[in-house]
Write a structure and sequence with these properties.
It is built from 4 helices and 11 strands, in the order βββββαβαβαββββα. With 169 residues, it is α+β, with helices and mostly antiparallel strands. The strands form 3 sheets. Strands 7-6-5-10-11 form a 5-stranded mixed sheet. A hairpin with a 2-residue loop joins β1 and β2. It is globular and about 40 Å long. The termini are far apart.
Length: 169
């Protein structure tokens, strides 16, 4: 499934591969790797409330700020796990976290086959990177909140995602 024009970068329309998920949908499974190259599936993320923050690349200003913001928010949300997903290589994710002291967010890389992007509808076909999005998944693996940020360079609505995570925990 492809969604032409579902996102833009600097105003230029781009195609997202995969479905547009909504609150109430079952969270799809995925295959990614952590910064130790260990395979990770949805089941491996546990049975807590999870905020899945999806970014194109940690080496861009908005992605950098988004990931740092969720790292800060994690301190006040002990019953919520926060995961950042990008196409960045696991080594780059680990280096970035070390450089900025990001230690409360779990980093997962979708670089291998784009499984997360294809299942969650965040894979930008033309660029093979993730589009900016946030999902809140409850302990029963139901999506409680889904936001696909229309313009890749814009910030997500942090407050909506955080409120949904608090309500689900």
């Amino acid at each position: 499934m492809e969604r032409a024009g579902a996102t833009t970068m600097r105003g230029n329309p781009l195609t997202l591969v995969g479905p547009e998920l909504k609150a109430g949908d079952a969270a799809p499974d995925f295959d990614m790797v952590d910064n130790g190259l260990k395979p990770v599936t949805l089941a491996d993320t546990g049975n807590h409330v999870r905020i899945i923050s999806v970014v194109p690349s940690l080496d861009t200003p908005v992605c950098d700020a988004q990931t740092k913001r969720f790292n800060e928010e994690a301190a006040g949300m002990p019953n919520v796990d926060i995961i950042t997903v990008s196409m960045d290589l696991p080594f780059a994710q680990k280096r970035w976290c070390g450089a900025f002291g990001v230690d409360k967010v779990k980093m997962l890389s979708d670089h291998k086959d784009g499984s997360f992007g294809a299942h969650y509808g965040t894979l930008i076909k033309e660029l093979r990177i993730e589009s900016r999005a946030i999902f809140v998944v409850d302990p029963d693996n139901k999506i409680r909140h889904a936001e696909y940020v229309k313009e890749v360079a814009d910030f997500p609505n942090y407050e909506s995602a955080l409120a949904a995570a608090r309500a689900a925990s």
